[in-house]
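Hi there,

I know you've been waiting on this one. I reran it after we fixed the sequence typo, so this is the corrected version. Both the input and the resulting structure follow.
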Amino acid sequence: MKIGIVGAGMVGSAAAFAMAMRGIGTRITLVDLDEARARAEAEDIAHAVPFAHQMRVEAGHYANLQGAEVVILAAGVSQRPGETRLELLSRNCLVFQEVVSRVMEVAPGAILLVASNPVDIMGQITQEISGLPPGRVIGSGTILDTARFRSLLGRHLGIAPGSVHGYVLGEHGDSEVLAWSNVCVGSLQLADFAAQIGAAVTADVRTRIDAGVRRAAYTIIEGKGATWYGIGAGLARIVEAIETDEQAVLSVSCMSDVLDIQGVACSLPRVVGRAGVVAELVPNLNAEEKAGLRASAALLKAAVEGLG
């Protein structure tokens, strides 16, 4: 499968590297306004290919995206220290008006995978600009927040994060909702598992994990300026599900109706395969979580409507 990446900055190049290491795709093409950066990143990643899986990694122009089945959109301006994802909106909208149009000219059959922040809104804008069905425009959404949630909870319980089944819903940002009420570990509800191993999930533990998930990006940005490894791996995971037609349940963002909020892009557990998002799952939430998800969706919808 041919994969295109528009935006060869840290996120785009981290995604390309993750896919090269995991053997996802057969050809990756990096496109960037800074052509020298795209060439350098492609060359550097290509030198890692002999240690991993055979594939072709190259730099190119928009025309070289022809035939791509997935195009990752990682272009745009970076989040500044102290800046919320929603504050990025007006700056990144102008970038995407050009980027999406140029991608669609050469790769109209591609699934578009949006990584640029604020990712939920940029995904909705991408869907409207491209005219593609909602299931073929996927935002990375809360796939990284969900990974952080599972990682921190697994650390507290002393088990592998892969054995924790829980999701972060709504906005990839400050209003996101950690769905504690339906977390399972193995075949047990979280509270039952925690009781059996003597690692109670108290209110203090929940508060600490919630803050760890919700503030993770800000902490990383303060320390090194941006995040890229986690989201790069998350993007690779989504592309893998598409390439293998896995029908994997992932917390990604796309346009749909969320509770009583119609036509908004935010994250729910969704089934991802070769055709993109093919189904949406509505988790059983308690009243507080449901109210939080509704508020998160309403915030995102209002932000998009504010753009006209």
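Quick highlight: The CA atoms of residues 189 and 249 lie 19 Å apart.

Best,
R. S.
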